[in-house]
Structure formats: C-alpha cells, structure tokens
Specification:
mainly alpha; ABC transporter involved in vitamin B12 uptake, BtuC; 13 helices; 2 strands
C-alpha cells in the first residue's frame, strides 16, 4: 500500500512539471498558431539558469544568510530569464514569418532549438548543475514505512496553483479577453484597436515563462544536463496530442494521463513504457484528431 501511495505522489509530481511545459506550449499555439519546437530547450534553459543561480553563483555564497526561503525565492529567476528571452525571440525571429506557411515556423523553431542547445553548452559547460540544496533543506515526510521528499509535494502545489492562476488569468481578466479575442480573429482584433503585436509578445513570453518555470522547479530534484529538453519536448507533445493543442484543460488532463501511465510503465513494464504512451496518443488521434479537448 505504501508503494502505491508513493507511485501516486510521483505521478502527481511529474504531472505538475509536464503541465507547466505543456500549458506554455498550448498557450503559444492557441494564440499564435505556432508549434514551438524550441519549447523543450527553453525548459532546459530555465533549469540551467535556476541551478546556476541557486547552486553555483549565489546559492553557495549566501546560503547561510538566505536559508531555505531565500533559495526558493531565487528559483523562479530562471523562468523570468526565459520569459525575457522569449520576449526577444518573438519580434526578431517569429514575427516576420506570420504570413508564411507553417513549415517556416517549424524550421525556425527547430533552428532555435539547435542554437539554444549550443548556447547552453557554451555558457554552462558539460557539467550537470543542480539546486539540490533546496531539496535537502526541505527534508522528507513519512509515508507509511518510507520517507518521501517534501519538495515533491511543494512542486505539486506549484502545479496546482499555476493551473488555477493561468485559468483565472485567461478567463477572468481583461487581458485574458484580449488574448482570446486575438487568438480567434487577429484581423478583427486589430480593427477594434487591439495592439496585436504587443499581445503576441506577451503571450509568447508567458508561454516561455511556463516552460522556464517547469525547468526551474525540477532542478532541485533532477540535475540540469545537456539534452534535458529533448525528451521533455517529446513528452510535452504527447501531452498536447492527447489533451488537444491549444487547450489549457487538455494540457492538465493530458499531463495527468501521461504521468500516471509512465509511472506505472516504469514500475511494471519499463521496456515498452514509451511505446504505450505513443499508442495512447495514436488511439486518441484516430478517435478524435483534435485531442480530447481540442477544437478544429
């Protein structure tokens, strides 16, 4: 029974991280109709920046003064840095391509993926970076006869808060109304006086922030290493294929499905756990091509 509870907690932890990534990917597509292949690299960049700030640059030097609360406050700086990068990428690389076909978007974002991977290698080197001091400071709680990291529960709470906050931001604020209006009809929104270019910059920056936040919250539990974003990008696409690209609700449900299936797969059939995820995604596409909550 204890193992079963821990598996559920691990699934929720992994679902929280996947949701942060997939929600950003869905938001960017929902507003701008861009499939961002560099999204996984932005996740990895957030992980690297947060690990560097907490673990290497500031964390060790001020650890005695900052304590746990201070290190937790430093953790989101990686997400903020990724949002700033996104605010630069949209007007310089993506905006000139909006009137072109989707193939150009895919090629540019794939090229951006390669550039970011090399840039992280140049800036941070090949040595893995970690913010494990946070996880050590938070300790563990007893779950039956075993101990479970308290930080994992903290990440689940962050994922839940992010889901509620993003939903409220999109559906209960004036900017959310503008965002949805722009996503439905860009020309009409511009005719009504909405600054579409500004909305696009903000939407892309928010999507990048979500990816960076996913990377930031994972580095206390998992080291930032080269190639970190590639596997996550594949899983994020599986999430949005199942849930529906452009749907916040789909990102949440898809993340839960993928995380629970993968956790069970690693435990019971590790040889084919990825194949099972792809089969689920293929089945959803056959039955409902737009995903469970996507719209044509």
């Amino acid at each position: 029974m204890t193992i079963f509870v821990i598996q559920i907690l691990n699934s929720l932890f992994y679902a929280a991280v996947l949701f942060l990534i997939a929600a950003g990917l869905s938001l960017i597509y929902g507003v701008m109709r861009i499939v961002n292949l560099a999204h996984g690299s932005l996740y990895a960049l957030g992980a690297y920046v947060s690990a560097w700030i907490v673990g290497s640059a500031v964390g060790h030097a001020l650890e005695g003064n900052l304590g746990l609360a201070g290190m937790l406050l430093l953790l989101p700086l990686g997400a903020i840095a990724v949002a700033a990068v996104g605010a630069l990428i949209e007007p310089t690389l993506l905006r000139p391509l909006y009137r072109r076909s989707e193939e150009y978007h895919l090629l540019v974002t794939f090229g951006l993926l390669m550039i970011l991977e090399d840039l992280m290698k140049l800036l941070f080197g090949r040595t893995p970076l970690s913010a494990g001091a946070i996880m050590d400071r938070m300790g563990s709680i007893p779950v039956g006869r075993l101990m479970y990291p308290t930080y994992n529960l903290f990440v689940v709470a962050i994922g839940l808060a992010a889901a509620i906050g993003l939903w409220a931001f999109i559906y209960r604020t004036k900017f959310g109304v503008i965002l949805r209006a722009t996503s439905q009809d860009r020309r009409m929104a511009a005719a009504l006086g909405i600054d579409v270019s500004r909305v696009y910059v903000q939407a892309f920056a928010i999507g990048c922030f979500m990816a960076g936040l996913g990377g930031a919250v994972v580095v206390p539990a998992q080291a930032a290493v080269l190639g970190l974003g590639i596997e996550v990008l594949i899983l994020a696409f599986v999430v949005v294929v199942i849930g529906g690209l452009g749907s916040l609700q789909g990102a949440l449900v898809g993340a839960l499905i993928v995380s629970f299936v993968r956790t069970a797969g690693i435990q019971f059939f590790p040889e084919i756990e990825l194949a099972v995820l792809y089969l689920i995604a293929a089945a959803v596409l056959l039955i409902r091509p737009t995903g469970l909550f996507g719209r044509a």
